[in-house]
Amino acid sequence: MTTSITTAKRASHQVTFVVLAVGVGAYALLQSLVTPVLPTIQAALHTSQANVTWVLTAYLLSASIFTPIVGRLGDMRGKKKMFVIALIALAVGSLLAALATTLPIMIVARVIQGVGGGVLPLAFGIIRDEFPSERVPGAVGLIASLTAIGAGLGIVLAGPIVSALNYHWLFWIPLIMIALAALGAAFLVPESENTTPGRINWLTAVLLSAWLVALLVAVSEAPTWGWGSVSVIGLIVAAVVIGVVWVLVEARSANPLIDMKMMAIRAVWTTNLAALLFGVAMYALFAFLPEFLQTPSAAGYGFGASITKSGVMILPQAVFMFLVGLVAGRLAQRFGSKLVLIVGALIGTAALLILALAHTQEWEIYLATALTGVGFGLAFSSMSNIIVAAVPREQTGVASGMNANIRTIGGSLGAAVMASIVTAKVLPTGLPVESGYTNGFLLLAAAVFLCAVAGVFIPAIGRHPVGGNLEEPEVALRHGELALVPGGTVVGDESE
């Protein structure tokens, strides 16, 4: 009888994981599928190059605003319920985008899709609530890796999809996945019994939205408007001022949207710092490596690759991210998530140095993209595990949401700075000079190395004790480290 009950529980967890993976994978695809084919969308919607970038910016802004809010609502109202709602928003946005014939409709569709950004923190919360504790690190690591895998696959698949069908299928295909995930979540995923009574503090939500919009618009438009322009400087100043006000209001609120005490836990803020630096490198690489590979060799560098061929050259990154995601949880249990993060960041640094200093042969690109897959996969999964372990169960959604948000901010900043460096000097043909890419890749390598340095300051997370009961968290101090002890996950910080 015990065996049959255990088997039934295991099957239920497997089904839940598949549903979560499909939903998160579809969300990740929507992040990147449109990036390589923006010129195609620009021509189809009869708009300018400057205006079509809002197809990306609108999605980014919306996701940044809604991810922590939806995560908080999940902690309060039920993670399954909010997961289904987030998937419905993704589905509605994808349907509208697939049918869009004008830029304003496409932008509205992308804003609606951004509401679905909450699927990631909600998935982490569902895993923490519903899975056996010994399986949480592996499941969280693989779901976290899926976001990076999906983003990488989007760049790989965009060309073949547009060539074989048309750009509308960049939204139809994720829509099919989202619909299946929504149905699966509604009927197969159990609702968590762990909820936190409370309400959304809309003042702090508005303040959070305001400084995020100001900051992300500034860094997204800086390469076009100029970093020294009045508009960019004004937006950055506004973001800083509103951000300070937001922190002060949250700290004094009896019902904060984001608990500042939680954000001050050493394991949380150091991991968020690592996420910011990691985001700088990963999303900038996704945006600019295809452009580098597609540069005609007549420019003195590049491979003149088609969209499809450049996707094939980047494919090892997604493949190795997936393979690493399968074992990242076990590695974290054996060696600790902190060490996995540091090692992953160092491997990523080596890969970016190869791209910067040795990028004339195709095998060098394949080696570099394979290594970025390994390094980024390890770092990505370990950060999510650290955040999940570092906060109380009832704050999993909002903490994971803010970590994802901070990574997105890093990505926006990295892409904007990379664009400024790459386009600083151009050839008579209008193409960037090779040194622009070299310097840009060196910058990204420095960011990932600093991510490893930030990882050194993250409190260590002890390994699961054999046979230990980790059902409920207990807080204890052991030289300022996070440790796992019989009876619970110990989340320690010398400042507490």
Notes on the protein architecture:
The chain has 496 residues and is mainly alpha-helical. The chain folds into two domains: 2-200 and 257-490, Up-down Bundle (Growth Hormone, Chain: A), CATH 1.20.1250.20; 201-256. Helix content is 74%, strand content 1%. It has 18 helices and two strands. It has helices at residues 2-32, 38-44, 49-52, 54-77, 79-99, 103-114, 119-130, 136-164, 169-188, 202-225, 230-252, 260-263, 266-294, 307-335, 337-357, 362-390, 396-422, 434-456, and strands spanning 483-485, 488-490. α5 packs antiparallel against α9 (169-188). The longest helix has 31 residues, at 2-32. It is globular and about 60 Å long.
Q: Which fold does the CATH topology of the largest domain refer to?
A: Growth Hormone, Chain: A
CATH class of the largest domain: Mainly Alpha
SSE ordering:
HHHHHHHHHHHHHHHHHHEE
Q: Could you give the distance between the termini?
A: 44 Å
CATH-level-4 superfamily name of the largest domain: MFS general substrate transporter like domains
* Number of DSSP E strands: 2
- What is the residue-mean pLDDT, rounded to a whole number? 81
| Number of helices in the DSSP assignment | 18
